Amino acid sequence: MTDKIHKYRGKEIEVTFDAKRCIHSAECVRGLPEAFNTSRKPWVLPDAAAAEKVAEIVKRCPTGALHFKNAQNGLREETPEHNVAMLAKDGPIYLRGDIEILDAGGNVVLVDTRVALCRCGASRNKPFCDNAHRQSGFKDAGAINFQKSDEEEPVGHTKLRVQASPNGPLLVDGNVTIVDSSKTLQEKSNSPAFCRCGASGVKPYCDGSHNRVNFTDH
After folding, report:
1. How far apart are CA 46 and CA 34, in angstroms?
2. What is the number of other CB atoms lying within 10 angstroms of the CB of residue 3?
3. What is the 3-state secondary structure (H, E, C) of 129-187?
4. What distance in Å separates the CA atoms of residue 89 and residue 112, rounded to the nearest whole number?
5. pLDDT in tens, 15-35
6. In the chain, is it the N or the C terminus that has fewer CB atoms within a 10 Å radius of its CB?
């Protein structure tokens, strides 16, 4: 995660933007167009609205591309008490919580409260979503194929550690509540393995289909 982070400094708040993680969900533009407007340069004007409002809208960004800091009035983003995985129809998994992203060697490469993870298999920024699902033809209703509970003891820590296995699923270490795309159904899961090849028959979970489709993660 060494890509350039753009910084937009205001008098009371600074907004940072990681373009590589942005998938144009437009929560910021719809929520506060006076401060976030992609038709102008700079597209972020932190002083165009109250710092509290800017912070509120930044926290709506589902990918973590936007963050804020250096607020003089003590504003800060709280780490959610519970980890939630929201399934997007024909799109990524949106995670919110106390999140650590690990590389193949187990090293932490990102700590965040919001990320969007690829599940179509086509992203060039794996494990993150880059909107490749729109071109790849990925289709999934974002439903939950409920798994039988084995009454496992919940993981003791509150962090959600996510690691992409080589040419395989997203291995999640921690407790997470999975919510379907309608936001009406949910399942609590202890350290699930999420499909990221796009071919599983029991989405969002892995069923080994990555072997059948020869999924590779370059």
Report:
1. 9
2. 10
3. CCCCHHHHCCCCCCCCCCCCCCCCCCCCCCCEEEEECCCCCEEEECEEEEECCCCCCEE
4. 23
5. 999 999 999 999 999 999 999
6. C
- Say if residue 212 is exposed, middle or buried (CB neighbours under 10 Å; 0-12, 13-18, 19+): exposed
CA distance 60 to 55: 9
Best CATH choice for the domain 6-69 from the list 3.40.50.300, 3.30.70.20, 3.90.1170.10, 3.40.50.2300: 3.30.70.20
Q: Where in the chain is the domain with CATH 3.30.70.20?
A: 6-69
In 28-122, DSSP assigns E strands to 66-69, 84-87, 93-102, 108-117
- Closest by CA to 91, choosing from 169, 192, 204, is 204
pLDDT digits (tens, 9 = 90+) for 93-115: 999 999 999 998 899 999 999 99
Nearest CA-CA partner of 9 in 37, 38, 51: 51
> With a threshold of 0.90, does the pTM exceed it?
yes
Q: Quote the DSSP letter at residue 73.
A: T
Query: Residues 117, 162: contact at Cβ < 8 Å?
Result: yes
Q: Which residue has the tokens 């753009």?
A: 6
Give backbone dihedrals phi and psi of 177, rounded to 5 degrees, phi first. Answer: -100, 120
Helix, strand, coil share (%) of the chain residues, nearest 5? 10, 30, 60
Question: Taking phi first (over 0 means left), then psi (-120 to 50 degrees means alpha), and beta for anything else, what does residue 214 get?
Answer: left
